[in-house]
Write a structure and sequence with these properties.
The protein is an all-alpha fold. The chain has 17 helices and no strands. It has helices at residues 3-39, 49-77, 85-108, 112-135, 138-141, 144-159, 161-172, 178-210, 217-233, 246-272, 274-280, 283-305, 309-317, 319-344, 352-378, 386-394, 396-411. Helix 2 runs parallel beside helix 8 (178-210) and helix 8 runs parallel beside helix 14 (319-344).
Length: 412
């Protein structure tokens, strides 16, 4: 490699690492807003609770997860190239939209300014998708991981139908309409269960290929179609609360079955190759892989339960179960697997103590959230100082994220 090419390669890695640090910063801010939301139950807070929820959720999903995933995707496909000017502009515009949402949602909720920045973000995500689909080098295009990531990006674009529909629904039918909630559920389903999930699986398949582990083409084709069919049909699980026609229950149940078959195939593949994975990965990365696998099994189990109308109604009526599930997916499965990927790709250095501190905060806070849901459901006794303990435990999350961020900035 020539001296100039080596310099460009180093600059590219540095820029990509900077993007990772920015994503971690958004995670730290989102976690801080989460603590602020917990404090509303303990002491008077000069702010609007719902507005801060909007800021918290948008910063977490779009600041942390979106930026981390898109940074990893860019790293996989363009690792030997200097960051292009067009990609830099997309990244800059994306951050302008994220900062606009971060500083407008807490003060006005969904209003003119926050809607403008939210709309800008949607266009940035479209431009990023177009950039990846158009410019990815040919050597990646026929790989299994590219097919999964390509599908994930299309799901991200497809999910945006939900936000676009909200404006029309609010101006015509109002927030009381079932279509208002269905639009939100549509967006969340194709974010959590499609864009995030398939992108993560696609990155995992890249890891498998680097370790010389691949599905044969027939096996992958079956897995791919089962997974995508299940993702689409399982959206109907989100409609059960409306008491829809019987066909909706059938489609939701079928989607669940297809997903179970697809994930059985994936876990069977991993278990067949666990010895090679253990040998090739360092012990810490392998430990993260096992933890993430357990969390994914928990996600699959909870999602599958909602195929039973009784549990679907219970989840709709009990907000703590919904929050517990969303946090299980976001703070647990998604965030931990992102830590693992970033560490494996050397985009961050993940201190073990910070990782296990984060894991402790996540697990204990999840137990407390599901405990409250069970208390409300079964009428069990509720211990005193619950909300104070929840704040103290949840504080471990921003502390550990700040630790990871600070550690990497010092090393830089």
């Amino acid at each position: 490699m020539s001296r100039d090419n080596l310099l460009y390669s180093k600059m590219s890695r540095l820029d990509i690492k900077n993007h990772t640090y920015i994503a971690l910063t958004y995670f730290f801010l989102a976690a801080g807003l989460g603590i602020l939301l917990r404090l509303f139950y303990i002491t008077p807070i000069p702010g609007n609770y719902k507005y801060i929820i909007h800021a918290h959720s948008h910063t977490a999903l779009l600041g942390w997860v979106y930026l981390a995933l898109t940074t990893i995707i860019y790293r996989l496909f363009f690792q030997s190239k200097k960051l292009s000017k067009r990609y830099r502009y997309i990244f800059l515009a994306t951050n302008i939209s994220l900062l606009g949402m971060l500083f407008s949602f807490p003060f006005q909720g969904y209003a003119v300014i926050s809607i403008i920045f939210s709309t800008l973000f949607l266009f940035c995500s479209y431009f990023f998708t177009a950039y990846i689909l158009k410019n990815t080098p040919e050597k990646h295009r026929q790989t299994q991981y590219f097919k999964l990531i390509k599908a994930a990006l299309w799901y991200m674009v497809f999910s945006s139908i939900g936000p676009w529909a909200l404006g029309a629904i609010m101006s015509t039918l109002g927030k009381a309409s079932i279509w208002y909630k269905l639009s939100i559920y549509f967006y969340l389903h194709f974010q959590y269960n499609a864009w995030f999930l398939l992108a993560i699986i696609g990155i995992a398949f890249y890891l498998f290929q680097q370790l010389k582990l691949t599905f044969n083409s027939r096996e992958f084709k079956r897995f791919f179609y089962l997974l995508n069919s299940g993702v689409i049909l399982s959206f109907f699980l989100s409609t059960y609360w409306t008491n829809p026609p019987t066909i909706f229950y059938v489609l939701g149940g079928l989607g669940t079955i297809l997903l179970l078959i697809a994930f059985y195939q994936l876990f069977a593949f991993i278990l067949r190759n666990k010895d090679q994975l253990k040998a090739e990965l360092n012990s810490f990365n392998y430990q993260i892989l096992k933890i993430v696998g357990i969390l994914l099994l928990g996600k699959i189990f909870m999602q599958s339960l909602t195929a039973i109308p009784f549990f679907a109604d219970l989840a709709f009526e009990n907000l703590d179960f919904v929050i517990g599930y969303l946090h299980w997916v976001f703070l647990g499965f998604v965030s931990l697997v992102l830590f693992g990927f970033l560490n494996w790709l050397k985009l961050i250095r993940l201190p073990k103590n910070a990782f296990y501190l984060y894991l402790s905060g996540f697990l204990i806070s999840e137990m407390l959230i599901f405990y409250k849901g069970l208390v409300l459901w079964l009428g069990l006794p509720f211990f005193s100082n619950y909300f104070l303990i929840l704040v103290l435990v949840s504080a471990l999350i921003p502390i550990s994220v700040g630790w990871i961020l600070g550690f990497n900035l010092r090393k830089k």
